[in-house]
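User: Can you recover a sequence for this backbone? Please restate the input before giving your answer.

Assistant: Of course. Working from this structure:
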């Protein structure tokens, strides 16, 4: 078969990767290096994946005696919900993978002695975040993509995956159905192993820092197959998004010495975290900012933001270390970081939860079993290294390490098995759905429904939550789902029908949002990014466990997974989350 540009591509491969961000590219590299035919499907060009937007850096204890400090900070940052074995692996592997990226040509910033430069990031006791100015993700992704191209990995871009081929009886995945955005046709791709690496799902919220592609498709696809999602209630709100658009002003700004200031001109973090101030973990800083705004000490015309000021560092320093942040603030808010403060507010940023996997990226069928031939890595997966709250700089690291491990694990599985054939009838459900949309006589508008979803999610499932708001949102989502079925497709063309794609994406956003709300309603405690006004304390006796959400005939149900922890619950309860910075 040929793609839009006439190039030939295979419809049956050993390893099929969905997503071409950092995790997808590195999974593909590992599978290809194992000698397997590897194909990557992606809805945007690989270098437009959200990984390229990562600004601040990637953590690695490269110049420390050991990696235990990194692991301890990550566990404390996660509010103890992360799995200790996964965290220890992440931190132990970090120096090796950063050295590999460096050797492969990633241009990390250097100190005057020629070492890889590291900056301070929130929740960490040491300078551990390696960076390439404020374009770290772009540099890492370019390096990974170039490597994949050199090895001969095939990429099909502008292909939108809308279904998974999954044999429930055998518990085995054997391919996907993807929609060719160029000609609106669904096509079956057959594979021995499928790796999902579709990134985050922040687009369900109104103010968010995520790329337009981050609509969590794979999560809803998995949920609709009766497979679980893990810890969905934990959505990270980054403290510093631009007030208007939510576009990220990286933690690097505070890491380099930026201040947060309220309308009274005070560095208010003194009241919330006197030791670490602006460099406390993200959940704490975001709630502090929101509390200041709610107390009437916000700035800007609507008093709905706070000032972030780096101008005291000097224009030359800002321009040298944070050039992209300056450009973003100038371009999107007409405010100059070199000249004075910019207005910021918390923005939905990162998804700690996702598709539950083990350390090799194998997707869970339930608490005890795994799906054959299905893997997930990167932000769409939950391994769980971030628990209830991710530390900045740990997620590029997760994508690199678990992307590679997952590719290797898929390669091991593929070597021993035969391809389970797929047929064009496997796409019949997708075809029916598309033709129903083309012929729909409904009157609902895509734009209105999406805005309603984003506004109500931000209002009811945002930084502060309670039972009444969450129940209301459950009701809103049930209604939105019904309205989605009555959407009208205004553009009926068969070429680059982005409206069709956005309708399908909205359907996915509604489904995984239901999982976020179900998890948040059930978890009657406050932990990390999940803060319940009606249950403001952490409750380790009941809630030191991961939640698993299933969907069966449109009904959601919950189950739980134990947290892998080398400490006893009692020790954890006695350990204060407030650690002194050293
Ligand atoms: C603004 C911003 C700044 C950040 N800064 C940092 C930082 O400094 N340090 C850090 O550690 N982390 C940072 N993060 C987080 C980090 O960048 C991401 O978690 C990580 O890059 C995710 O990589 P990924 O490969 O899992 O997904 P992505 O890079 O998001 O890639 C997802 C891929 O999936 C494809 N895809 C999605 N759905 C489909 C579909 N249905 N069909 C086909 N293809 C599909 C997309 O086309 C894309 O190629 C930041 C995040 C943001 C939003």
């Amino acid at each position: 078969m040929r793609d839009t540009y006439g190039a030939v591509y295979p419809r049956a491969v050993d390893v099929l990767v969905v997503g071409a961000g950092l995790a997808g590219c590195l999974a593909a590299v590992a599978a290809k290096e194992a000698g397997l035919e590897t194909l990557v499907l992606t809805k945007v060009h690989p270098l437009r994946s959200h990984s390229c937007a990562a600004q601040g850096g990637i953590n690695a204890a490269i110049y420390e005696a050991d990696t235990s400090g990194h692991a301890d900070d990550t566990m404390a940052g996660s509010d103890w919900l992360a799995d200790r074995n996964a965290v220890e692996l992440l931190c132990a592997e970090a120096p090796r993978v950063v050295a590999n990226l460096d050797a492969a040509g990633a241009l990390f910033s250097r100190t005057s002695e020629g070492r890889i430069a590291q900056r301070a990031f929130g929740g960490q006791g040491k300078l551990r975040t390696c960076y390439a100015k404020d374009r770290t993700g772009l540099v890492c992704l370019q390096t990974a993509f170039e490597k994949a191209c050199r090895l001969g990995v095939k990429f099909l871009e502008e292909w939108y995956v809308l279904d998974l081929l999954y044999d429930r009886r055998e518990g085995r995945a054997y391919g996907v159905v993807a929609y060719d955005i160029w000609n609106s046709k669904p096509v079956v791709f057959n594979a021995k192993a499928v790796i999902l690496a579709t990134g985050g799902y922040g687009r369900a919220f109104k103010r968010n820092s995520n790329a337009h592609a981050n609509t969590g498709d794979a999560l809803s696809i998995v949920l609709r197959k009766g497979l679980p999602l893990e810890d969905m209630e934990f959505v990270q709100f980054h403290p510093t998004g631009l007030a208007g658009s939510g576009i990220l002003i990286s933690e690097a700004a505070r890491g380099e010495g930026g201040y947060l200031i309220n309308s009274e001109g005070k560095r208010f973090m003194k009241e919330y975290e006197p030791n670490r101030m602006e460099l406390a973990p993200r959940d704490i800083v975001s709630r502090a900012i929101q509390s200041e705004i709610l107390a009437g000490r916000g700035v800007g015309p609507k008093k709905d933001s706070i000032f972030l000021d780096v101008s005291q560092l000097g224009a030359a320093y800002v321009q040298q270390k944070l050039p992209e942040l300056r450009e973003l603030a100038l371009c999107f808010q007409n405010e100059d970081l070199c000249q004075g403060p910019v207005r910021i507010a918390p923005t939905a940023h990162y998804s700690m939860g996702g598709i539950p996997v083990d350390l090799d990226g194998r997707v869970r069928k339930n608490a005890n079993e795994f799906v054959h031939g299905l893997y997930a890595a990167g932000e769409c997966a939950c391994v769980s290294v971030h628990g209830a709250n991710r530390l900045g700089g740990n997620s590029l690291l997760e994508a690199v390490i678990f992307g590679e491990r997952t590719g290797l694990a898929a390669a091991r599985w593929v070597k021993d098995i035969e391809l389970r054939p797929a047929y064009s009838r496997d796409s019949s459900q997708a075809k029916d759905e598309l033709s129903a949309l083309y012929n729909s006589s409904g009157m609902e508008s895509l734009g209105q429904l999406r805005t309603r979803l984003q506004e109500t999610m931000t209002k009811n499932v945002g930084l502060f939550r309670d039972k009444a708001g969450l129940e209301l949102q459950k009701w809103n989502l049930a209604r939105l789902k019904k309205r989605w079925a009555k959407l009208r497709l205004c553009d009926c063309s068969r070429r680059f029908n982005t409206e069709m794609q956005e309708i399908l994406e909205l359907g996915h956003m509604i489904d995984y949002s239901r999982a976020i709300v179900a998890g948040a309603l059930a978890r009657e405690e406050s932990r990390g990014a999940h803060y319940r006004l009606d249950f403001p304390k952490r409750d380790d006796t009941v809630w030191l466990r991961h939640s698993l959400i299933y969907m069966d005939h449109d009904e959601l149900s919950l189950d739980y997974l134990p947290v892998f922890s080398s400490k006893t619950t009692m020790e954890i309860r006695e350990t204060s989350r407030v650690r002194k910075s050293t």
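That completes the design. Residues 568-582 have pLDDT under 50 and may be disordered.
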